[in-house]
């Protein structure tokens, strides 16, 4: 025998709504019935009268609030639930812009969303605005409440003075309203750190969608109103997220899109006034320029980033990127000087990285750059030593970045090929060829394409050389950029 469903369950609510709709009742009638029958708070009753979930209601509130200048609301299911419970425990007071957005969503009056408990708990200024005949708390054509321009509205001088005080109080309440709290901003930054860290080990295509969704949430908050420092903090989060999207886009081979993300990230860094963020954005721009063949730009971006005098490990990465570009240009002295600069920067790193993950340069990542630079400078023995050392460092690190590890193995293989050791190269590349397709990013494929497959004497290597060439071609056929091109592109994963 089935247990009887709890009174007010979804089954009960749906039955009431369907029966009353069939009987010709309005949504308002259903909301009244929901309140009386299931003892609901008024805002919850209106939501269930429409048959919506918390998230569906949050989405509608976000959408309609953007049509009111200066009153954008960033709602989610949890926040809507807290607004419904107010003024009870574990709740949150809905501001006047929130209530107005709800009236648009539910097609009701503000008064319909409030009961006696709500009115007793509302600030006095809110009550005055709601109780004034014909009053609209925030006119649609003006983001802030405007002072009255009709002195005759007050019958006496005393009432006029009182009215002016009410108007000033209402404006002050509007001015101090924020659509985001400090804890929420901390959570957004924490979520950004998670994304930057997971990018080292997770499916990049799926992670791109999650990063885009988080960026959109931050952009929506910036469209609203918050205190100046909160805006600065949001710009910083947005800058790191756009920087992460730029890095991912370049790894997918989408360099024009990466450039666009980089420019937006730079704007956010400027608005936030954060030198560390500026440096990481310029590091990202240097990476994009390098893979786009704009090597002088790559050098200049790296040097500009270093001139920001940031803290953390970005100083190490910027020097490595400069060395990378110089080595590709064939400038040996400049490349080796930049590698030495990276070593000095490692010894003088101050402070922790704000975000970490891809926005961090651990010793193994530095070693990967050193090995690649030594290879381009025609020093295979030095490259092999640097690669072997980098792999030992990577094994000891808490997170093994698959992209870094793959490129270190490629440097090992290139060093072996340079001296005609095809068997050693094939062995070094075995972990690279084992990468799943969603981890086969453009930098790895490009590095494979640069392997000196024809190096050494023609008779050296034999079948190993043939097998190596075939394995490289097969690797590049199924890659993350190809998966991105075939994906539906629906955003959040």
Model description:
Helix content is 67%, strand content 0%. With 493 residues, it is mainly alpha-helical. It folds into three domains: 10-143, no CATH class; 178-360, Tetratricopeptide repeat domain (Serine Threonine Protein Phosphatase 5, Tetratricopeptide repeat, Alpha Horseshoe), CATH 1.25.40.10; 362-493, Alpha Horseshoe (Serine Threonine Protein Phosphatase 5, Tetratricopeptide repeat), CATH 1.25.40.
Question: Which features would summarize this protein structure in a list?
Answer:
single chain, 493 residues, 67% helix, Serine Threonine Protein Phosphatase 5, Tetratricopeptide repeat, 3 domains, 24 helices, disordered N terminus, mainly alpha
Brief overview, please?
Helix content is 67%, strand content 0%.
List the helices and strands and how they pair.
Layout: H1 10-22, H2 27-38, H3 42-50, H4 54-65, H5 77-85, H6 96-106, H7 116-121, H8 124-131, H9 157-175, H10 182-198, H11 204-222, H12 228-251, H13 255-272, H14 275-291, H15 295-307, H16 314-329, H17 332-347, H18 363-376, H19 380-396, H20 402-418, H21 422-433, H22 442-449, H23 463-477, H24 480-486
